[in-house]
Amino acid sequence: MNSKKTQDISPELFLALLKRLQQITENEEAESFDISEIVAFLWNGAHRRLYPIQRPVAIDIDNLLNIEEQKKKVLANTTNFIKGRAANNVLLWGEKGTGKSSLIKGLLKKFSPVGLRMIQVFNQDINTIHYMYDFIYRHSYYRFIIFIDDLSFEKERSDYKALKTIMDGGLQEFPENLLFYATSNRRHLIPTKFSDSESDLVRPSDDIEEKISLSDRFGLRLGFYRIDEDSYLKIVQMYASKYKITIPQERLQRLAIEWSIQAGGRNGRIAEQFIKSL
């Protein structure tokens, strides 16, 4: 009897039921966490799933030195967002090791108690971001930041066009409780060369404008620059206190300068690496 009933089900109906069962299972898996307890997630685009981060980083923004103006603007923008006011997507661009990623990560410690939730997305999963929108809609009480670290596109890649549509929402309404915060070493995210204007295009300038228009989706764009020696030594001193390094200041500074010369630069990351070497 059961066998005959199974045979009466058309292949099309069977596939539809199977697909629906899969969707229900995926939704149950996706919701198998308490969002009031989980503040950070990792997005897996291949599986269309959010994975809770059990041990999120706890960065104290006050310990990020020499970027006071950037901190002030990012904190003001995020405060507006948390309070339901108008706020911008954020792009932090510039020199490596200057605190771009740390500044965004530090927002978790400061704002998660008042409703901020952060989702990290890797570059290869960017084109699947819109699959998260239903989840974000369902949890409208919370404010979500999609964090993309080291966002950039090679010249031959065209998926930056998809990201522009994803950030605009397309025909699908964009969640009002969502913003994008990204870091990049490039101001315009996509490399543009003077030689690009020598292509066979009728209007090569249009091609260049299209490539740099992605950064226009980020209303707040802040640059991070190389620091001078005095600023570098202040950061060294801060990390020395954090890691309880107790050697004479004159020797500490001399060693720090030697380390920066060998490392080929001066920034917060190099300062911390120097202190760890001690």
Oligomer classification: single chain
Number of domains: 2
Largest sheet report: 7 strands, mixed
The low-pLDDT segments are: 201-208
Question: What's the level 1 CATH class of the largest domain?
Answer: Alpha Beta
Structure overview:
With 278 residues, the protein is an alpha/beta fold. It has two domains: 61-224, P-loop containing nucleotide triphosphate hydrolases (Rossmann fold, 3-Layer(aba) Sandwich); 229-277. The chain is built from ten helices and seven strands. Strands 2-1-4-5-6-3-7 form a seven-stranded mixed beta sheet. The longest helix has 20 residues, at 11-30. The protein is elongated. The protein starts with a helix and ends with a helix.
